[in-house]
Amino acid sequence: MHSFFAMLSRMKYINRWGLMRSTQPENIAEHSLEVAYIAHVLALLRVRRFAIPCDPDRAALLGLYHDVTEIITGDLPTPVKYHSPEIRRAYGEVEALAADRLLNMLPEDLREDYASLLQENSAADEALLPLVKAADKISAVIKCVEERKTGNREFIAAEKTLREAVSAMHLPEADAFMEEFLPAYEKTLDEYE
């Protein structure tokens, strides 16, 4: 018996934004799917508009698996996770142990395939990681926009900080998403073209 996929199904039980009052809870399964969509389009933009070769499908896959260790660790709030270099380093060690535990839930002949998604990435993946990180932040911006639209002021400061963080990444692909796609999240369903 191998329990890897049974564990992955538990992503839906790990809620995000633990320090914030949300009008609509968000779990890491939902978030990871959105990150995968966004990472995919960021990589497509990189290829089509900026003529930089990369693999959009791989970017989507990295986005899909980027938070799976949180099944074991939980979603540590950003202010805690990045409070100090010591905490960040210790949390990195906990994430590595969680990845190893998940990999051990797979049959031996599949572990190497999933190791590249859960552990250290290859040189080819290193070029995609900034896109996945941008997609992660953009997904968080989207959550903030959605919460603000419901009248929840709890996310206003986070939205400003996250927008600044995306801009500070200096990724033309992320800038293009923010300019071309993010405004639609401000609209209602009836206002979509």
| Poorly predicted residue ranges | none
In round numbers, the mean pLDDT is 93
Q: Round the Cα radius of gyration to an integer and report it.
A: 17 Å
- Strand % is under 5%
CATH third-tier fold name: Hypothetical protein af1432
* Helix-strand string: HHHHHHHHHH
In whole angstroms, the N-to-C terminal distance is 49 Å
Number of strands: 0
Q: What composes the largest sheet?
A: none
Q: Strand pairing plus helix content: what structural class?
A: mainly alpha
Summarize the amount of helix as a percent range: 55-70%
Shape: globular
CATH top level assignment: Mainly Alpha
Number of continuous helical runs: 10
Give the full name of the CATH homologous superfamily: Hypothetical protein af1432
Overall tally of structural domains: 1
CATH architecture classification: Orthogonal Bundle
The multimeric state of the shown protein is single chain
Q: How would you describe the overall organization of this protein?
A:
The chain is mainly alpha-helical. The chain has a single domain (4-191), classed as Hypothetical protein af1432. It has 10 helices and no strands. It has helices at 4-8, 28-50, 56-65, 70-73, 78-81, 85-103, 108-118, 123-149, 156-168, 172-180. Helix 2 (28-50) crosses helix 10 (172-180) and helix 8 packs antiparallel against helix 9. The longest helix is centred in the C-terminal third of the chain and has 27 residues, at 123-149. The termini are far apart.
